[in-house]
Amino acid sequence: IIQKKNAERLGFTDHIRIYCCDWHNAVPELYKQGSVFDIVFLDPPYAMVNLTDVFETLISVITSETIIILEHQTNTQPVVPECYEIIKQRSWGFASANIYKLNKNI
Predict the structure, then answer these.
(1) Is pLDDT above 90 for 61?
(2) How far is the C-alpha of 85 from the C-alpha of 63, rounded, in Å?
(3) What pLDDT is attached to residue 1?
(4) Whole-angstrom Cα distance, residue 59 to residue 80?
(5) Is the pLDDT of residue 63 over 90?
(6) Max CA distance (Å), the chain
(7) What is the pTM of this model?
(8) Average pLDDT, the chain
(9) Do the Cβ atoms of 23 and 31 come closer than 8 Å?
(10) Per-residue pLDDT for 54 more than 70?
(11) Contact criterion met (CB below 8 Å) for 40 and 59
(12) Are 82 and 102 contacting, i.e. CB atoms less than 8 angstroms apart?
């Protein structure tokens, strides 16, 4: 996969884990392993706009300092729980990315 090749090229293979699997299975397993992530990249199908379940499940493997980068279709705003705030947004044609953190004020 391209992500693995990029990590190898940049010399990050000892510092990252790449999972290409369904989040329903991955996040509970990662929680059981005691995993906690600094950065999470999400690239769901563009038709998947309501990401509430995904973001609620992620709470078990992140901290208040974790950033979550979500790719989505431009002109759509993904639905996520209120405990997350958008800290940055970017668009490139039909693709956009939102960067989220847990809202410390909630």
Answers:
(1) yes
(2) 14
(3) 67
(4) 12
(5) yes
(6) 40
(7) 0.83
(8) 90
(9) no
(10) yes
(11) no
(12) no
DSSP the chain: -HHHHHHHHHT-TTT-----S-HHHHHHHHHHTT--EEEEEE---TT--B-HHHHHHHGGGEEEEEEEEEEEETT---B--TTEEEEEEEEETTEEEEEEEE-TT-
Nearest Cα residue to 97 out of 46, 47, 50: 46
**Cβ neighbours of residue 32 under 8 Å, at least 6 residues apart?**
none
Q: What six digits make up the tokens of 37?
A: 């992530």
CA distance 74 to 20: 23
Unique residue bearing structure tokens 């190898």: 8
At 73-95, the pLDDT tens digits run 999 989 999 999 999 999 999 99
Q: Which of 99, 50, 52 is closest to 71 using CA atoms?
A: 99
Count Cβ neighbours within 10 Å for each residue of 51-62 and write b for 16 or more, e otherwise.
beebbeebeebb
For residues 99 and 82, what is the distance between their CA atoms, to the nearest angstrom? 14
